[in-house]
Design goal:
The structure holds two protein chains of two kinds. Helix content of chain A is 38%, strand content 22%. Chain A has 16 helices and 16 strands. In chain A, the strands form two sheets. A nine-stranded mixed β-sheet of chain A has the order 15-14-13-12-8-11-10-9-16. Chain A has a six-stranded parallel β-sheet with strand order 4-3-2-5-6-7, with helices on both faces. In chain A, helix 7 links the parallel strand 6 and strand 7. The longest helix of chain A has 20 residues. The relative contact order of chain A is 0.16. Chain B is an alpha+beta fold. Chain B has one domain: paralog of FGE (formylglycine-generating enzyme), CATH 3.90.1580.10. Chain B has six helices and twelve strands. The longest helix of chain B is centred in the N-terminal third of the chain and has 18 residues. Chain B is globular. In chain B, 53% of the residues are buried. The chains are: A alpha/beta, B alpha+beta. At the A-B interface, strand 1 and helix 8 of A face strand 3 of B.
């Protein structure tokens, strides 16, 4: 009888990046395999202690998700940073963060990283994500990062490199996408990848919603030249947010790249901002992507008006249809159907699942950081579509990668 | 090269590939017997292995809960998926489309695969059956680094990226360390087990799945599948009655 324990052996790695875009950027995990270390190594304190955490970005989503972290029970917020002192103070008071550990200004996060927190939760505007995440990894912190990972190519590459470094230095790095935690999504994607809808020929990704940014348009209209108001109204700033397609619509496109397990080869696009006066972001995009194996995915989005609210992705195969709705049902229809089900509250439940997974990864010493590769891939997919739409012409993936175009933000007038 | 020519060369290609495989990276090939249908039956030793995927493994699905499995008895497993020619020798009626003696038989329900095994058992005076899910994964892993990891998926599997959307003659890709072909890709394969979550027992001996249920475990991925489905640990379930153009089977002979 042979006796061979394969439980600690990595599964086959994704196909090489050099030959295929499938499994894009999963090389760190694939090459290293599951880097499991003892919980004591992973977590300097006793295994049953709570992780100390710093919140970077104390705005709406930051304070909302911090509440979920606290409800988990395995975290304790001991530091906070936001450009705006009032926001750092408001969160700090609520979370019982001492006054001397509430930091503000553009470099406030850097001062937070000098503390002894175990982990940081980065919920700042997307423009800041790559630098803040990279500095956090350099400071030896575990990183929980909101999507999108970055607004441009250099940012995506920085995040990719930071994740590799996190794996090497035994730190967790999780990108918070909700859909990938949901059992219905996971099963439907798995079955589609297995071949249950036949040969996938084409698909649709749609993100339609109303105005999202509350009073931000009003602020910008009243004081268009106030740099701090521009920062507060980051959701309407093209460079700070990455524009609608990257900042929000990434949820729909992430599902498409997930099902196809591939990045697109090229895109043609258009769009505009006919219903929006304030800020620099567009309010709608229309993009047609060409994926490997001659799969076409049409994408459309709008962030205006009323009466339509859906984040969906459909994939059409020769034998069936993958049909997913972030706020509704996920199912496969056709010759080999999957009933799936209605998702109760993915926005919250997905974050709760990721918060738990982040904690478990740190305690288990699992630093393979599997969420990063797919997240960067879908991030780049949005940037490809955005670039094609801005240019109004066809752009290939290879052209985009070679150009390595940055999307610089205007930070003049802001204090460090 | 046309399909017919490729099919005709398939056994020779497989044999040559096995003969040239680096001796240092593979254990000695286990004994092979050939039955009256021309099926090459590879002896698989009893053994213990890690089933499922450890946390953090690339493309891991949550249901691939890692556990240790001991298989107490050796068995023989067909080196390739059952072909249309082998099927036609025992069973009347349809074998799938397109037709070709060396193409895998597809579009058959689970009960039909079981009936084929029964008739084969009668003919051979030996017990043939579908592999259990554990036997299938053990055979796929072959106590070696997964061939997809060392040789690359294109070398070992017909799948979405290289199949042109169709099944191919069996045995035209590289074998695994035990000489088994098309364990990943070409057509997905019925197993004996009812599809359900793994029992959360860290050590299991000769597991055979739940006693009842209507969906059966399907393994291996197919010519339609993407890489996440083409892993030894990847599993899915399909209702017994479904007859699918990408779903066939291979057989086990009890020792």
């Amino acid at each position: 009888m042979t006796d061979q324990n394969q439980a600690d052996r990595p599964e086959p790695p994704a196909t090489s990046l050099a030959t295929s875009r499938r499994g894009f950027l999963t090389a760190a995990a694939a090459l290293s395999g599951p880097l499991l270390v003892s919980p004591r190594l992973a977590f300097g304190a006793e295994a049953n202690s709570r992780l100390t955490v710093g919140l970077v970005g104390c705005g709406g989503r930051g304070t909302w998700i911090a509440d979920l972290f606290q409800k988990h029970g395995g975290y304790q917020f001991v530091a906070a940073a936001d450009y705006f002192q009032d926001r750092a103070d408001a969160f700090g008071a609520k979370a019982q963060v001492s006054a001397e550990r509430r930091y503000s200004g553009l470099q406030g996060y850097a001062r937070l990283l000098q503390t002894d927190v175990d982990a940081v939760v980065i919920e700042s505007p997307p423009f800041f994500h790559p630098r803040q995440a990279a500095d956090a990894v350099d400071a030896g912190k575990h990183v929980y990062l909101a999507k999108p990972t970055a607004v441009d190519l250099p940012g995506c590459r920085t995040v990719e490199e930071s994740a590799r470094k996190a794996t090497e230095t035994k730190r967790a790095f999780l990108v918070d996408f909700q859909t990938r935690t949901d059992p219905f999504y996971r099963e439907a994607v798995k079955r589609s990848q297995y071949g249950d809808i036949g040969r996938i020929v084409c698909g649709e990704a749609v993100y339609v919603c109303g105005p999202t940014w509350g009073d931000q348009a009003k602020w910008l209209t009243e004081k268009p030249n106030d740099p701090e108001l521009r920062l507060r109204a980051w959701g309407l700033d093209r460079a700070l947010s990455g524009d609608v397609i990257t900042e929000q619509n990434i949820h729909a496109l992430d599902v498409a790249t997930w099902v196809l397990d591939a990045a697109p080869l090229s895109a043609v696009g258009t769009g505009g901002r006919g219903g929006r006066k304030a800020g620099s972001c567009w309010d709608h995009f229309s993009v047609v992507y060409a994926f490997p194996q001659e799969v076409t995915v049409s994408f459309s989005s709008k962030q205006l008006g009323d009466g339509a609210d859906d984040i969906s992705c459909k994939m059409y195969g020769t034998d069936g249809t993958f049909d997913s709705h972030y706020f509704g049902e996920v199912a496969i229809r056709g010759k080999l159907p999957y009933k799936g089900g209605k998702i109760p509250n993915l926005y919250t439940d997905g974050a709760i699942a990721n918060i738990a997974a982040f904690h478990e990864a740190i305690l288990r010493g699992d630093f393979t950081n599997p969420t990063v590769g797919p997240s960067v891939r879908s991030n780049l997919t949005t940037i490809l579509g955005r670039t094609a739409a801005y240019r109004g012409s066809r752009v290939t993936w290879d052209e985009m990668m070679a150009a390595n175009e940055a999307l610089p933000a205007d930070l003049s007038g802001l204090r460090s | 090269m046309g399909r017919a020519a490729r099919a005709a060369l398939a056994p020779a290609v497989a044999a040559l590939t096995m003969a040239l495989a680096p001796a240092l990276t593979q254990p000695p090939s286990p004994p092979v017997s050939v039955n009256s249908l021309g099926m090459r039956m590879v002896l698989v030793p009893a053994g213990r292995f890690g089933m499922g995927s450890p946390a953090g493994a690339p493309m891991r699905q949550e249901e691939e809960w890692p556990h240790q499995v001991t298989l107490t008895k050796p068995f023989r497993i067909s080196a390739t998926e059952v072909t249309q020619g082998q099927w036609r020798a025992l069973m009347p009626g349809r074998v799938g489309s397109p037709a070709g003696d060396d193409l895998p038989v597809v579009s058959l329900g689970w009960m039909e695969a079981v009936e084929f095994c029964r008739k084969l058992s009668e003919r051979e005076k030996s017990v043939y059956r579908l592999p259990t899910e554990a036997e299938w994964e053990y055979a796929c892993r072959a106590n070696a680094q997964d061939p997809a990891a060392t040789a690359g998926l294109d070398a070992v599997a017909w799948y979405a990226d290289d199949s042109d959307g169709m099944a191919h003659a069996v045995g035209t890709k590289k074998p695994n360390a035990w000489g088994l072909l098309d364990m990943l890709g070409n057509v997905a394969e019925w197993t004996a087990d009812v599809y359900a979550a793994y029992p959360h027992e860290a050590e299991q001996t000769d597991p055979a799945g739940p006693a009842s249920g209507t969906s059966r475990v399907v393994r291996g991925g197919s010519f339609r599948s993407f890489p996440p489905a083409l892993r030894c640990a990847a599993r899915t379930g399909t209702p017994e009655s479904y007859q699918l153009a990408h779903l066939g089977f291979r057989v086990v002979q009890q020792e």
